[in-house]
Amino acid sequence: MMDSSIQVSVFWSKREYRVEHTQPTDISIPLRDPRLGEGPAAWYVGRPRFDVVEGDGFVGSVARGGAVNFTDVYFNPHGHGTHTECLGHITKEAESVNNIKLPLVLPCLLHTIAPSDVNGDSVITVEHLPGGASSNDMLPRAMIIRTLPNDDKKKSKDWANTNPTFLDSEFTKKLVQRGVEHLLVDLPSVDKEIDGGSLLSHRAFFKVPEAPRAGATITEFVFIPSDVKDGLYALNLQIAPFDLDASPSRPVIYPLSAI
Fold first, then answer.
1. High-pLDDT (> 90) share of the chain, %
2. What are 43-70's pLDDT values in tens digits?
3. Full domain range(s) for residue 64
4. 194 with 116, same domain?
5. At a CB cut-off of 8 Å and minimum separation 6, what does 70 contact?
6. How far out from the chain centre does Cα 227 lie?
7. Distances, alpha carbon 8 to alpha carbons 21, 57, 175, 216, in Å
């Protein structure tokens, strides 16, 4: 049980908010053995594999008579489940998400968007920015985008060859200009599935190559339940210690109360 005597607060827009840490909402999608229920997949890598280790009389399954459960897991961080990536995803240098230092909590805006149809593509455009395309108001350091329609299929869908919703690079540039350093989306990518390798929104967000943002992150494949309302939250972004451009992650959000 969580200790309700612990108090954590965040500051945003000259106001202090108490983090309601006993009311977490985990918005990650776990990496799951397909035999027990499928998680999402993308980028033509199929589903992850979970193989019981066997050999020399050993079996890594208690259900099959072994002393312990001992499983090899084969997966792709970008293609299976919630993951967080850094600018190393699109640079020659081996930049690692494991080098990013995150505070315990960050003020975070949850913003729901109904994408527009642009020449047959489902696109998030500058008109979908909080406050509209003309607003220059600063945003919290973290922002979560929930797209409509929002249903449980997002948690198990194979997105390969479906041309999912993506972010127009002008939208992404405006997020950066307005102060967003950590972007979370319920999509397999911020970019169009087949774009010839241009990755315009990734480049806009990480400002590669002109002014690389080594401390910025993009988290993809989150899922926000529909009963969680838009607004300001505290975000605890937990990243597994992989020395790689991307790592499985577990973002958790908490409601706030003004102090």
1. 94
2. 999 999 999 999 999 999 999 999 999 9
3. 41-74
4. yes
5. 52, 53, 58, 60, 61
6. 19
7. 8, 51, 27, 23
